[in-house]
Amino acid sequence: MTHSKEAMQQTVTSERPDTQPHIPVFAPHIGVDTLKHLTDAFDVGWLGMGATTKDFEERIAAYLGLDNRFVVATNTGTSALHIALIAAGVGPGDEVIVPSFNYVADHQAIGYTGAHVVMCDIRDGDLGIDAAKAEELITPRTKALLPLHFSGIPCDQSGVYALAQKYGLRVIEDGCHAFGTTVAGRKIGSYGDVACFSFDPVKIITSIDGGCVIVNTIEEAQRLQRLRLLGVDKDTTERYKNSRAWEYDVVDQGFRYHLTNIMASVGVSQIKRVDEFIASRQAVCEQYSSAFAKLHGVSVLRLDYSDVSPFIYSLRVKDGRRGAFIEHLKRKNIAAGIHFMPVHKHSYFADCRRGDMSVTDAVSSEVVTLPLHSNMQAALVERVIDSVSEFFS
Ligand SMILES: Cc1ncc(COP(=O)(O)O)c(C=O)c1O
User: Fold this and answer.
1) Is the N or C terminus of the chain more exposed, i.e. has fewer CB atoms within 10 Å?
2) Does residue 236 share a domain with residue 304?
């Protein structure tokens, strides 16, 4: 077999990775405003949990429109979930029902409490927990439901809360993807039972690492404050003034989960810009969806993102072509992610009780996460759209 020089050249050219700049799945949006907040926080000289932590909590409450609900900030979303479960009364031997199509933080947090993870399937439309299938998993040991608002899209809250009411269960909403998502005019976390959020490096707003829990009673909030600070009583009030209580009692098993002033200062800088970040992400998601909805071999989750605060943009690739699609994007120097590999497929969680996982198994073999950044450059959005369209045309 002979190869002409031109044919060889063509092969090499088409296989050579794109020389345009790499487009990552996530890109933090940290401006000079954040650097100013950080240096101001260092200048105060109180680096640990303090007045800026309180300021961040108050801004979260104001942003979400909390009315008689309470925010407790933590050092990660995972720790928020852990102490939220404890405050909700979950303990050793209890069962908590959670989607397998999820990040493993939820399952680990359940495990920390000594409770059993019970994994549930999702619905095909919003990719959130299937309440009818969850009902089949309820036993006398079931204590709580832990639904996720996948990618920022609200799950079937009415189905979840109807079940909770029928069986006397607590609900801990994982809102880690949905900070700012609105349902019937109210932000997720501003109503319902318990809600948790994450401010990790790639979330809609970041405090580098951080999270929070939102609860309905001051008693639960005070318990959370103790749980995040080694079970120490009354320390939070002093620390909010950038000082410490030298005489204190330890009244609970507690953890080292507080959010420092330094991290909170980043969070404060970010929450000031949250509307701008969300609006820019919504616009990109709508551009993506309107371009991809007409393609064959792929399906979009949503066309209208006006009420959704999109953490990621996810689409579903049909016909077993996901691997080839991701490779195609890679050649264009565009990264793609997978959210999620289902948790029941991980070896540590493989033996957990679970129900039918047919939707989870199908969806998790199709989902691809495309690059989505706050204030993403139009040229990058166009490159993603062109490259996706090229593959499916
Ligand atoms: C769905 C979900 N829940 C919980 C978490 C945990 O949050 P963190 O990374 O702040 O611990 C994440 C983080 O990616 C997440 O995606």
Assistant:
1) N
2) no
Same domain? 384 vs 334: yes
What CATH number is attached to the domain comprising 52?
3.40.640.10
User: Which domain does 167 fall in, by range?
Assistant: 32-271
pLDDT by residue (tens digit) across 207-245? 999 999 999 999 999 999 999 999 999 888 999 999 998
User: Which of 104, 200, 202, 257 to mutate for ligand 1's pocket (most ligand atoms within 8 Å of CB)?
Assistant: 200
Q: How far apart are CA 300 and CA 288, in angstroms?
A: 9
- Report residue 17's pLDDT band, with 50, 70 and 90 as the boundaries: low
Atom 14 of ligand 1, nearest CA residue: 103
First to last CA, the chain: 32
Cβ–ligand 1 distance for 76 under 6 Å, the answer: yes
The three-state DSSP-derived secondary structure of 38-74 is HHHHHHHCCCCCCHHHHHHHHHHHHHHCCCCCEEEEE
CA 202 to ligand 1: nearest atom:
14
Instruction: State which ligand 1 atom lies nearest to the alpha carbon of 150.
Output: 1
Residues 229, 300, single domain; the answer is no
Looking at 271, 296, 321, the residue that finishes a domain is 271
Tell me how far the alpha carbon of residue 343 lies from the centroid of ligand 1, in angstroms.
13
How many domains, the chain? 2
Same domain, 224 and 314: no
In short, whether 77's Cβ falls inside 6 Å of ligand 1 is yes
Tens of pLDDT, residues 279-314:
999 999 999 999 999 999 999 999 999 999 999 999
